[in-house]
Amino acid sequence: MSKYVSVGKILNFHGIKGEAKVGFSKNRQDFFMSLEKVFIKDDNRYNEFEISSVRPNKNFLIVKFKGINSINDIIPLKGQILFVEESTIRDNLDEDEFLIDELVGMGVINKETGESLGFVIGVSNNGATDLLSVKTHTKHICLIPFVKAIVPDVDIKNKKIYINNIEGLLE
Fold first, then answer.
1. Using CA atoms, how far apart are residues 137 and 104, in angstroms rounded to an integer?
2. DSSP assignment, residue 166?
3. What's the pTM?
4. What 3-state class would DSSP assign to 32?
5. Shortest CA distance to 19 belongs to which of 58, 51, 45?
């Protein structure tokens, strides 16, 4: 069974010919514009919607789906989350990019000493960089900038993230 990852949301209709105004994940316009299909979840079923055209419009995309030809067809889809199969995302990740659900639960290890420091409980973004939320063994939650200088190695296979534990990082 396929796993699905959200990539956008139908925010509103655009015009009267069935086009949708779509919000998308930050810095992922090119990825979204390369998609041929998306899925919309209805109950426990993912329904496929084939994309016939996509064009940028300010901070949004205008998307036309095959078979959606009027404002009356697109209005019921307003507010729906758009998904793609996880494999589609994985095929488009750069070497140093990861899915959030891969990182959550991974152990955090001091690269220098090999000491276990805690585990990742979430990932967020402060506008400048991604941040790993790490719960330490002392039950503190610390935010670690997810940058190469601090997080030099991510071992997906062994579920470990190695950090350069600079002074004050985990306080």
1. 16
2. -
3. 0.67
4. helix
5. 51
